[in-house]
Structure formats: C-alpha cells, structure tokens
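@here heads up, posting the sequence + SMILES for the pyridoxal-5'-phosphate run so it's all in one place. Ping me if the SMILES looks off, I pulled it from an old spreadsheet.
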Amino acid sequence: MAKVIEQIIPFHSADVGEEEAQAAGEVIRSGWLTMGPKTIEFEQKFAAYVGAKHAVGVSSCTAALHLALDAIGLKQGDEVLVPTTTFTSTAEVVCYFKAKPVLVDVDAKTLCMDPVDAERRITEKTRAVIPVHYAGQPCDMDVIRDMAKRHGLRVIEDAAHALPASYHGVRIGAISELTAFSFYATKTLTTGEGGMITTDNDELATRMRMMRLHGIGRDAWKRYSAAGSWFYEVLDSGFKYNLTDIQSAIGIVQLGKCDQMRDARAKIAHRYSEAFAPERALQVPTVSDGCDSAWHLYVLRLNLEELSITRSEMIEKLKERGVGTSVHFIPLHMHPYYKNTYGYREEDFPVASKQYQRYLSLPIFPGMTESQIDYVIENVLEIARSAAR
Ligand SMILES: *Cc1c(COP(=O)(O)O)cnc(C)c1O
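bot reply: prediction finished. Complex structure tokens:
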C-alpha cells in the first residue's frame, strides 16, 4: 500500500473565517441572493481602494477580460499581444472573438511580458495588449503604455495577481484604461469565484455593466426589487457574468483586510529571500524599482547547472516532506491547443521555454505560521544542498 502523506503545509490556504461567514450569512438571511446592494457597495469600495472611477463586479477575471475586449470592440481577425507565461484565461478570451492571441516572450528577470519582443510582434492587425503582472509584480507600464500609444493599441491589464500592487506610487487598477482582477479561491482577495474590472471611462463602464447581465439596459438587476419595474429592454446579446451579493459580502470583508494580508505575504517573501539568496543553486525573485508587489506568488528558480536534480524532482521531494508547491505557468505556447492552432514553437519563446524548466512556486499565504515558514526554508535548503554539484 502506498504511504499516505499527510500534507503539513498546503500550497495555499485562503484567509477566510467567521467574519466572511457572518457577512455571507447576513445576505442569505436578507433574502436577496443575487447581484444587488452588496455588489454595489463592494464595487464602490473596490474602486475607491485602487483609485479608479468605476469598478464593475463580475463572475471571474476571465469574464472581466472578455467584457473588456468586448468593450473595446475587438473583432474577428484582430490580434492581441499576450505574454506566453500566463494562465490560459489571458489568451482564451481573445479566441472567443475568433481573434488571434499573439504570444510574446517574457523578461528573464521578472517573467513579465518583454516589451521589446512585444513590439517586434506588432502587425497592422494588432489592436490591444494584455500585460500580466506576474506573481503580483507590476510590469513596466511606462514602457508598455508608450509602445501602445505609438502603435494605437488599447491596454487591458490582467491584474489577477496584482491586488494590491503599485507602480511608481499608483495602484494597479488606476493606470490603464481597463484592468481585470480575479477573486478565485487562491488569489489575494477571494470570494470563492469572482472578478472585477476597473476603468475611469464612463462609456466603457456602461457597456460592461450592460453586457455582464444579458445586454439588458439600465439596472436590470433591480427588476425584481420593490423599487424596480417589470419593464426592460435587451440592447445586445450579452453574457451572464454578474457577481452575487453573497460573493460581494465576502469580498467587502476581504477588502478590509487586504493590506494586512499583503503585509503577511511580504513578510514571508522576505524570510524566504533572506534564506535562499546566498545559495548558489537558488535564484530568488526581485521587485523592480518603484514597484510594490502584491506577493501573490513566491516563485523560486533553480540554477540547474548547480544541481543534480530537476525542478520536477525538487517538487517531488518537497511533496514527500509535506510541502505543497505549484508551477506558474506552463507557457501557453507549450500547450497543445495554442501549439496546434497557431503553430507556436518552443524556439520562438527562448526565455519563457528555458525559465519554465527552472521555477516552482512555494507556499505563501497570510495564515502561515512561523514554524511552517521555517519548515519550508529548512527543507528547500536541505534538498538543494544535498543535490549540489
Ligand atoms: C487566475 C488567473 C486568471 C483567471 O482568473 P479567474 O477569476 O479564475 O477567471 C487570469 N489570469 C491570470 C494570470 C490568472 O492567474
């Protein structure tokens, strides 16, 4: 019989508890379960928190990205620049329009989209760019925005990892025309499932509010409330992407402790980096000048020439010792769908392909205890040292 391994430290554990349960319970007892006053409150608080004029609550970050591309009027045959080192959501939404996700190689230091490679891949069909703030570290938005301006591209930030993060003192969510956030279970603010789009543009906000709820005109959600009316008009073929009041009530509590959770993650990152930086076999993540990272992920890289084990063996050994890890991400150009549909090859993305062999994500969540942090450090060091060449 296989030995049952009791995981001592999971890769992730959401910081949710009594307060969130209480808030969700209150909504359930109120009798109004779907989108309503709590979602409006959450949107207003979220917009104020990041410093944007509008925040539109939706069912996921994938939905947020889809609505953003709809709002800018993406069409069949258009092209959108997307980093290859990301989750499939960032690119799949482009495919929804029968447009092409043009994958871009990443910067070796930050693993964010390489703006030089992005610019090389611009054609007359390119309409937009979706930078991803990988692991919570902001992309170099000045360079990306300058490129977008020169080529007439729209910028939609994938900020699934970047709450709260800032770039030269400005919160992510208040920089570009459109920014998409995720409240998935493993993200830095969770509502189980959920997402948000921020924008300062009234027209885009109105379009996204309409399209998230079936393309129905103003305040469709109110039609079942005492203040509402039975009459409504469908103005376009929209989607069912709204956020519920149960989710929003959880989100409001989470937003209230967002900074505190971020500080807890930053502290863990600091402990890890202090311990791992001196090791020849390990490379720790860096934060770019003028940036504050959300520290959604702690991505450790192995200097494989210094080690007799691979990244996958490192993961296996940590698992045997009860430490959960993950890999962010298998680059999109290596997945059968993107490879077969668009003919992407590994050699077209030399940096992403090479870095992929080297990285793993260590546990980093607010509830980690000192002894859990110590345990991860001890075991990573022990494995690395015993496998040193
Ligand atoms: C998690 C994630 C998404 C998708 O978020 P959902 O809310 O699950 O749709 C998009 N982009 C990146 C980079 C992600 O990590």
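MO: The CA atoms of residues 40 and 59 lie 14 Å apart.
MO: One more: The chain has a mean pLDDT of 96.
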